[in-house]
Amino acid sequence: MIKVLKPCSKCKIEKLFSEFSTDKGRKDGYCPQCKACQRETRSKNLEVNRARAKAWRIANPERKKEHDANWKKKNRERVRKNNQTWEAKNPKSKTESRRRWRKANPDKVLAACRRRQAAKLKATPLWADHFVIEGMYELARVFRRAGLLLEVDHIIPLRGKNVCGLHCQDNLQLLSRSANASKQNKWLEV
Ligand SMILES: [Zn+2]
């Protein structure tokens, strides 16, 4: 007689073979537990593991922090990409979180400003035309007052990765704020 039903080792119900996952390592070629029981076991294990992980995180906040920091260090590229995707989906939150960061870190903002000023001073050649340079900044201010968010940008950044530009009229241009922000301090063509 051909067997069409198989009892599940867990729920003990006799079920069709199609209700069992195949397992070549078994005598009859099928798992002892039915698919429904396997699903239940899997989700239960998942829950138990999640609860265990959560308890560990709560009990070891310092180690959790350390673990996160290590993971971020090892997955810099992934973190950067995730952030980028999130920012692209939440353009308002990006500005908002930047604003919050600035508010929470006034010393860092000031330090960055000072560094930039120092770089400008060092990068200003004798032949720089301060009248033209100031004029560019004034022009940007006028545009901004009119609602057009323009900024004076150093075409070759003052503190670029591979090259340092000069703070002079020939290296300045007006850029929209968003274009300027996405440009950052990169200068790839050396
Ligand atoms: Zn079962």
Please describe what this structure looks like.
The mean pLDDT is 87. By secondary structure, this protein is of the alpha+beta class. Helices cover 57% and strands 13% of the residues. It has 7 helices and 6 strands; from the N terminus they run E-E-E-E-H-H-H-H-H-H-E-E-H. Among the domains are: 5-64, no CATH class; 125-190, no CATH class. The strands form 3 sheets. The protein has a two-stranded antiparallel ribbon. The protein is elongated. The protein binds zinc ion (ZN). Residues 8, 10-11, 13, 33-34, 36-37 line the site of zinc ion.
Total count of helical runs of at least 4 residues: 7
Strand order of the largest sheet: 1-2
Question: Termini distance?
Answer: 81 Å
**Number of DSSP E strands:** 6
Radius of gyration: 31 Å
Structural class, judged by helices and strands? Answer: alpha+beta
**Residues in helices, as a percent range:** 55-70%
Taking all residues together, what is the mean pLDDT? 87
Unique ligands:
zinc ion
SSE arrangement:
Elements: E1 5-7, E2 14-16, E3 20-22, E4 30-34, H1 35-59, H2 61-74, H3 76-89, H4 91-104, H5 106-123, H6 130-145, E5 150-154, E6 172-176, H7 177-183
Antiparallel strand pairs: 1-2, 3-4, 5-6
Bound molecules: zinc ion.
